[in-house]
Amino acid sequence: MFNFFIFGCLSLFQISFILGKTDVYISLPTGAGKSLCYQLPALLRTGVTVVFSPLIALIHDQVLTCKTLGIKCETLNSKTSASERAVIMEDIRSNSPSLQLLYITPESAATDNTRRILTSLYKRHLLNYFVVDEAHCVTHWGHDFRPDYLKLSHLRSIAPEVRWVALTATASPNAQDDIVKQLRLNSPKIFKASTFRSNLYYDVVMKDLLPGSVESHVAEFVRKALNYPKSTSEPQKSSVSTSCPVPPSPFTKPNVEDVVRNVSVEAKESKFRGSGIIYCRTRDECERMAKRMTEEGIRAFPYHAGMNNKLRDDVQNKWMTNEVPVIAATISFGMGIDKADVRFVVHWTCPQNLAAYYQESGRAGRDGKRSYCRIYYSRDDRQLLNFLVTQDLQRIKAKSMDKKVIEEQIKAAQQGFSKMVDFCEKPGCRHVAFAKYFGDDDLRPCRSSCDFCKNPKDCEKKLSDFHSEEWKHIGKWGSRKRALGEDSSFIYEDGRNAKIDQGSEGNDDAVQRMENEEKARRTAVIQEEFKRRRISAQRSSAPPRPSPFTNSKIGVVDPNAKQIANLTLARRSAIKTAIYNALSSNKCGGNDCSIETASKLIEYEVYKASKNTTIYQHKASQKVASIKKSTKDGEVFDISSYKTLSDESLLEGFKAASSAFLM
């Protein structure tokens, strides 16, 4: 099951724990079985081993895995019921606890109750050792820094003789040194293996260079990776079309529970060979991608924080049992899930740093069989990525922290971003890029496990084509803006050299942050509307608010709206004009509504879905590109849903939302 290196590592690890008093630092590649490095020693000694893990969901999966292996394991966290807590505490207080592993979060480790538990175990010589899982979270140089991890070293004061184990798969040399420092590891034994996994094939596909639908390209890749039948006569295809309704898009509201529940008994009987993950940045993208895959004949479900716990569990269980082969998820999905037959991991949008990508893509191929890791990359994605990283830097600079720590965090963010861009935009072995980043000694090319080593000339040609269009250098790291040809002026208010709107929030978790901001924005809009109505009632003699559709000169819906700060009316009008021109070229005037009305409503839809000028301009760019692509492919862009709206129907959704808010 495990290779020779890991068995050798474990032997040394056991000796150091049984005969000596040595802290241990372990860095093994993704899927190499790091958990075994502390689970096995925990079985060899009487007492309790305490494991610190960053997420409750991750802890839940680890506890279930341990119990299936016969390890007596429990967790204490905010979701542990009172009855469960009572049983666990009774066992811990006994003279000979049956508990072998206790999982807790770093946040709970700082509480007085947890400290009392640990002190009691230590005084009775029943506290074996502390394990810090995902140890890169303790360092500013890590890609997922969590401040609560820094408090773990305080536990040395209550249990000074307990040995520590730090485990990670994604620590650069700087991160490794900082982990040792922050956890105050005492002359630790260091075990580190190469990051190279020969069974994983890495490649990067440039969205801008694909002639047809990018989603169709993804679907074809999925079919090949899973040997998925394309013929409609196959049972898998028929079960998708008849018993698995299309997952919801962001613009419709079907019952998602029914979508998952209606995977038929026939589908359960025809399990798929292998599975895959498509990582998306936002919840809407997850739903759109799942919908497109289903339309392409591939059964897929979305997975994100906007779904309730039961529904997420149902989706995950169906994916784990191969009833549903593909899941379109945000990056939170997959932590702690040990599924051996993941044949592919697709990133629909590029991660923010190389360490995160290594960890996320490493969820593929844990059974040792050939598996595929792919990024779909574009100039638009890179621009958005640059914006998010810039937001991170602004947030870091605003922290009340030591200046040196702030500088380290900024440097780490810059380095991770720069190496991620280099991974996508520079020719070279993909595995060597990982090896250099993580400080491996072996820098030999993989020869056949990435697109560059397999066909370097073809890879260089694609990169040359990707860079051949006009690009402008901006920012500290030479980031670039895409050239939009004759339509570029409508994207940036002051032309192509305009600065990106910096915004105000950071991006610890881009998906959750964007959703929280959208929720706050909606609340602010509702409150503003209530305020307006109160003023209107007090000034009954004042003229009524002009209709959103009355300003024919402006040509946009609700020209007086103030939802997006710093967005001028002239910019909105320019966006609407660009949409109008694209629709006119598409020749879709034969639909139920006019091109003029459709362009207004499409612009307004983009406006309502955006929270700042950067996102507004980015979404507008995508919409125009989508219309032009339909034109290029000889397809009519459907505007039938954009029918003429009265003032009442326009505000109908808003009124419903405000009513719900009052309830």
**For the CA atoms, what is the radius of gyration?**
27 Å
Estimate the strand proportion.
5-15%
The main sheet orders its strands as: 3-4-2-5-6-1-7
Number of helices: 25
**Sequence stretches where pLDDT stays below 50 over 5 or more residues:** 1-7, 231-254, 264-270, 470-512, 544-554, 645-663
Protein name: DNA 3'-5' helicase
Enzyme class: isomerase
EC number: 5.6.2.4
Family: Belongs to the helicase family. RecQ subfamily.
Describe this protein's structure.
Belongs to the helicase family. RecQ subfamily. Residues 498-519, 532-555 are annotated as: Disordered. This protein is of the alpha/beta class and 663 residues long. It has 3 domains: 4-192, Rossmann fold (3-Layer(aba) Sandwich), CATH 3.40.50; 200-377 and 426-468, P-loop containing nucleotide triphosphate hydrolases (Rossmann fold, 3-Layer(aba) Sandwich), CATH 3.40.50; 510-662, no CATH class. 46% of the residues lie in helices and 11% in strands. The chain has 25 helices and 15 strands. It has helices spanning 4-18, 36-44, 56-68, 82-93, 106-109, 112-123, 173-182, 214-226, 235-243, 256-261, 265-269, 283-295, 309-320, 354-361, 379-397, 403-425, 430-437, 451-454, 456-468, 510-538, 569-586, 595-608, 613-632, 647-650, 652-662; strands spanning 24-27, 48-52, 73-75, 101-104, 127-132, 163-168, 189-192, 200-206, 275-279, 300-303, 326-329, 342-347, 371-377, 472-474, 479-481. It has a 7-stranded parallel β-sheet. A 6-stranded parallel β-sheet has the order 8-13-12-9-11-10, sandwiched between helices. A two-stranded antiparallel ribbon has the order 14-15. α14 links the parallel β12 (342-347) and β13. α21 (569-586) packs across α22 and α21 (569-586) runs parallel beside α23 (613-632). The relative contact order is 0.07. Mean pLDDT is 77; it is low at 1-7, 231-254, 264-270, 470-512, 544-554 and 645-663.
